[in-house]
Specification:
This protein is of the alpha/beta class. The chain is built from 14 helices and 5 strands. It starts with a helix and ends in a 9-residue tail after the last helix. The mean pLDDT is 90.
């Protein structure tokens, strides 16, 4: 367990001195990381031995070990342990989400490599089989959405968020297949291993990911999306709107490239939905 988490989970039965030490540490991470044991003890109004016992209570070997662990986690822990909590209305929340989505979409559109997008669309349009890979929440959704968008155009596609399956599917892939992956950080090590295997086997790879990341370097075609996330830890990541938009771009490119094959498939799907759902042809192709 990291030190910040341990601090947040301290028992209620702490002594008054321990509580003062915890308050000093959580109130000023920078000070705690750089202070000597004497300086920390003085600010908390306790003795140095009390600080040592406090550190051991957190699972550290002593004060030096406590400082090392705190330094490793404080840069993340401070942001999440001390979030900016301000009065907020429903209208503020709605506006924040909408503005975040708009910024993500406009930022992506301004920087997306159109040549790479064209190459990706062409590769998907002619693929014998497509494997969509993603994990970790956001990218798992992107992989699923790729399957949702492309199967209806008459393409053979599977999607999985399981690293073991990704590796096995890559090992079983054949010439003419395409692997398309998603990683918001570009540092998914399991996907890196899978793409390395695909490169060895000369399977075409496409990746939606961050620019100049390990995954971008491994892919045959990198669709890079670099967007700032902001400091509000409570707002869901707006970057996923940009990723979904790129998926739609790819789907539309494939649809136009495969119009003769895609049209009949879309018609058959629509026919079943209209017959069995509500008879309304104006509704979306799906629910």
């Amino acid at each position: 367990m990291d030190v910040v988490t341990a601090l947040q989970q301290l028992d209620e039965g702490l002594s008054a001195g321990d509580r003062r030490i915890a308050a000093v540490v959580t109130g000023d991470f920078d000070f705690a990381v750089n202070a000597s044991i004497v300086e920390l003890a003085e600010r908390a109004g306790v003795s140095p031995p009390t600080v040592t016992r406090f550190c051991r209570r957190l699972g550290c070997r002593g004060f030096s070990d406590f400082k090392v662990r705190l330094a490793r986690t404080a840069f993340v822990g401070k942001r999440y342990a001390e979030p900016q909590i301000n009065p907020v209305s429903t209208a503020d929340i709605a506006g924040s989400v909408v503005s975040g989505a708009v910024k993500a979409l406009t930022g992506m559109a301004a920087t997306l490599d159109s040549e790479a997008l064209e190459r990706a669309g062409a590769a998907l349009s002619t693929a014998q089989m497509i494997h969509a890979f993603g994990s970790g929440g956001n990218s798992a959704v992107i992989a699923s959405e790729l399957q949702n968008r492309l199967f209806r155009l008459g393409l053979r596609i599977s999607a999985t968020a399981d690293h073991g399956m990704q590796l096995m599917l890559t090992a079983a892939a054949a010439p003419g297949d395409v692997i398309i992956g998603s990683s918001f950080t570009g540092r998914n090590r399991e996907l890196e291993h899978t793409l390395s295997l695909a490169r060895e086997r000369r399977i075409t790879t496409i990746v939606l990911t961050r620019k100049e990341s390990p995954l971008a370097a491994l892919a045959d075609i990198a669709l890079t999306i670099d967007l700032p996330e902001g400091e509000d830890i409570f707002r869901p990541t707006a970057t996923r709107f940009a990723y979904l938009a790129v998926v739609d771009m790819l789907a539309m490119m494939v649809a136009h490239a495969r119009a003769e094959e895609a049209g009949p498939v879309l018609r058959r799907i629509k026919q079943q939905l209209v017959l069995r759902r509500d008879g309304d042809d104006s509704q979306p192709l799906g629910d």
